[in-house]
Specification:
The structure holds two protein chains of two kinds. By secondary structure, chain A is mainly α. Chain A contains 23 helices and two strands. Chain A has one domain. By secondary structure, chain B is mostly helical. Helix content of chain B is 66%, strand content 0%. Chain B is built from four helices and no strands. In chain B, α1 runs antiparallel to α2 and α3 packs across α4.
């Protein structure tokens, strides 16, 4: 069977000493930043991009992937123990997880989150391995029209499923697309919006934007909030193993969460965050009156935690097969591949099978490592939580600064990042979500190229996007998504779903 | 006319201004025709869209009632200015003064942004992070970063 052969190749790659080491390093780092509130995977991966110059492509991507799903594990620890989501995707875990911790059942909550995540991670890995090849086949049939329409769908999908104002989110995408227009036009060689600044003719680095807006913008926002009193349950973590009754309640929730997360992860804009919200809502519905949600129900931990990990895994599918990132982390992975000279897209699987299958296999290996890292070694991470923020933010600032500088050994990038820190804080103040902006920014050049190529081929006829069935289907799907979200009943539900805290 | 949502009003205004600025910029580049789109073609479409969407956000901010006027709230001026200044100083100092001097400057500066500032803790952090970043970035990742000030090296 093809699948087995491919997986065997992948495991062969993943089990080499270097790759195991980098997978481990990624997982540790991911857990670390997941545990620490105020530092997310986007900023961390952006910070580490310069360092991958000295690595081979495969270990580099394995490490970055490890950071992403490691952060999902780590985030739940913080959510359960101090009621602060270490990671945005563990917001809902905090609701019931923290209540369980207050009742002295922190161990059971941590175990449910860890084991649920591990199960979901395994399933997610198999799904990627099974679905990637057929999707890749399909992608080879795509012309510029289809790619353009797919990107429209991807960008629209990214905001439809996100929280907050739809129209502002779409505006943020377009702002990202516009910022990406600051460059040298590939076709005519004209420098655009550069104001004769030589550094701008190469375009703004996406690391600069990611770091400025996500890294520094968040630090400033955090410092602007009054210092909160944190209650850490360090001593009460004992009896890691859940009781028999816990198991019976938790495993169906894990199954449901995994299924939901796997589906939502593939959708553009989905990924871990949406999956966990949806899973929590589903668990509440399923449990009905028997649930003790909000008062420490283990299902409220197991479901969302499995879902966010499954979502984190399957969000690799669009990135690996189509080269289209469904969320900000995947956008950075695309950037990392470009740095290593690999053009993301359907050809990666055939031209770099070692990388492709090695990365997939390493996810399973990484998940196994994470269970060990997070359950028996939980004590170490708990200690970390007692480190006050005043020691953390200077360190984060420093690593971001060094990261930006070493990307091109260029101080101009550092100044640009400072400017984007201000922009990022402004976005925070105006409640404009920055993630769609980053997606638009990454997809901008690709979108323009495909649009112009499609128009050239059709001799300027815009209907080409609607005449080709595949392209038309993608555009109709995008339009439908907007219409559905604007329906009054769905609109209210959507607001409700994101306000439950 | 009364602003019904402060946040939306200002974000709408921001989108409109950015749209107009980019649209004006786009007129400097060749539009081409739709059969042969030039470098100004895509930016112009985008900036017009941007301005329209910004206009809608603005319009909604002026007409639709929101809870308590959705105020923007206080700006955290001290963290904002201190962090931004620290980053800029870092950029200016690193090539000239090297890692050994720049890191402590950055740490002391950024620490001023927080609520608490204790010299002992700040200096300890500075020492640990200077050694740490040397170990990680120079020793481990073999990145080329100036280490010492120009007058020493």
């Amino acid at each position: 069977m093809d699948l087995l052969g491919n997986l065997a190749l992948g495991f062969g790659v993943a089990f080499t000493f270097t790759n195991l080491l980098y997978a481990f390093f990624g997982c540790v780092l991911g857990t670390l930043i997941g545990v620490l509130p105020g530092l997310g995977p986007v900023a961390t991966i952006a910070m580490l991009l310069p360092s991958i110059y000295s690595l081979d492509a495969t270990p580099a991507l394995i490490m970055l992937a490890g950071i992403y799903y490691g952060a999902q594990y780590g985030g739940s620890t913080t959510a359960i123990l101090i009621n602060v989501p270490g990671e945005s995707s563990s917001v809902v875990t905090a609701i019931d997880g923290y209540q369980m911790a207050r009742q002295g059942r922190a161990g059971a909550a941590l175990a449910a989150a860890g084991l649920g995540s591990f199960f979901a991670g395994c399933v997610g890995t198999i799904i990627i391995a099974a679905f990637a090849p057929p999707l890749t086949e399909l992608a080879f049939k795509f012309g510029p029209q289809e790619y353009f329409s797919l990107m429209v769908l991807g960008l629209i999908g990214a905001v439809v499923l996100a929280s907050g104002s739809l129209i502002k989110a779409i505006s943020m995408i377009i702002l990202g697309l516009l910022l990406a227009q600051i460059n040298t036009d590939v076709i005519s060689g004209t420098a655009r919006y550069s104001f004769d600044v030589p550094e701008l003719t190469d375009g703004i680095g996406f690391v600069v934007i990611a770091m400025g807006v996500f890294g520094f913008g968040e630090i400033i926002a955090n410092l602007g909030m009054p210092a909160e009193h944190r209650e850490v349950f360090t001593k009460s973590v004992k009896g890691l193993w859940p009781t028999k009754q816990d198991f019976q309640q938790a495993w169906p929730a894990v199954l449901r969460g995994t299924a939901l997360g796997s589906v939502l992860g593939v959708l553009p804009g989905g990924g871990a965050l949406l999956a966990s919200f949806a899973a929590y809502t589903v668990e509440k519905k399923v449990a009905g009156s028997s649930g003790r949600f909000g008062k420490g129900d283990i299902r409220g931990v197991a479901g969302p935690e499995s879902a966010n990990n499954a979502g984190a895994q399957t969000s690799f599918i669009p990135m690996l097969t189509l080269g289209i990132p469904p969320n900000a982390v995947m956008a950075l992975m695309v950037g990392a591949m470009t740095i290593k000279g690999i053009q993301p897209g359907p050809q990666v699987m055939t031209s770099n099978p070692q990388l492709f299958w090695g990365l997939i296999a390493s996810m399973w290996v990484g998940n196994a490592m994470l269970v060990i890292l997070n359950l028996p070694l939980i004590g170490i991470w708990i200690k970390l939580l007692t480190v006050p923020y005043r020691f953390l933010f200077p360190a984060i600032t420093l690593f971001c600064c060094i990261g930006v500088y070493t990307l091109n050994n260029n101080t101009f990038d550092v100044y640009m990042t400072a400017a984007f820190a201000v922009v990022g804080y402004l976005f925070y103040k105006l409640s404009c979500e920055p993630a769609p902006l980053l997606l638009g920014f990454i997809l901008g050049p690709m979108m323009e190229e495909n649009l112009r190529r499609a128009l050239l081929l059709s001799r300027g006829d815009w209907s080409t996007f609607l005449v080709r069935p595949l392209s038309a289907g993608l555009l109709i799907a995008a339009a439908l998504m907007i219409v559905i979200v604007l329906l009054p009943s769905i609109k209210n539900k959507r607001q409700e779903a994101f306000q439950e805290e | 006319m009364k602003i019904k949502s402060q946040r939306d009003f200002w974000s709408g205004l921001m989108f409109v201004v950015v749209g107009v600025v980019f649209a004006v910029g786009a007129t400097n580049y060749s539009m081409g025709s739709s059969a042969r789109p030039g470098p100004g073609y895509f930016p112009l479409i985008l900036s017009v869209l941007m301005a329209i969407l910004g206009g809608i956000v603005l319009f909604k901010a002026l007409t639709i009632e929101s809870e308590g006027g959705d105020p923007i709230g206080h700006f955290a001026w001290r963290p904002l200015l201190v962090i931004v200044a620290a980053i800029a100083v870092f950029g200016a100092a690193l090539p000239r003064l090297g890692l050994v001097v720049t890191v402590p400057i950055l740490i002391v500066m950024t620490s001023l942004a927080g609520d608490e500032f204790k010299w002992k803790g700040v200096l300890a952090t500075a020492v640990v992070l200077t050694v740490g970043s040397w170990a990680i970035f120079v020793l481990g990742l073999k990145l080329i970063i100036p280490m010492w000030p120009w007058f020493v090296a």
